[in-house]
Amino acid sequence: MSRIPDTFARLKADGRKALIPFVTAGDPDRESTIAIMHALVAGGADVIELGVPFSDPMADGPTIQRASERALRNGTSLRDVLALVRTFREQDQRTPVVLMGYANPVEAMGYDTFVDEAARAGVDGVLVVDYPPEESADLTHRLRARGIDSIFLLSPTSDDARMADVGKLASGYVYYVSLKGVTGAAHIDLDEVGAMIPRIRAHVDVPIGVGFGIRDGETARAIGAIADAVVIGSRLVQEIEASTPETAAARLGALVESIRKAMDA
Amino acid sequence: MQMYDLPDRKGHFGPYGGVFVAETLVHALDELRTQYERLREDPAFIAEFEYELRHYVGRPSPVYHARRLTEKCGGAQIWLKREDLNHTGAHKINNTMGQALVARHMGKKRIIAETGAGQHGVASATVAARYGMECVVYMGSEDVVRQAPNVYRMKLLGASVVPVESGSRTLKDALNEAMRDWVTNVEDTFYIIGTVAGPHPYPMMVRDFNAVVGRELLQQMPEAIGRQPDAILACVGGGSNAMGAFYPYITQESVKLIGVEAGGFGLASGKHAATLCAGRPGVLHGNRTYLMQDENGQIVETHSISAGLDYPGVGPEHAWLKDSGRAQYVSVTDEEALEAFHALCRLEGIIPALESSHAVAHAMKLAREMSADQVLLVNLSGRGDKDMNTVAKHSGITL
Question: How many domains does chain A divide into?
Answer without folding.
Answer: 1
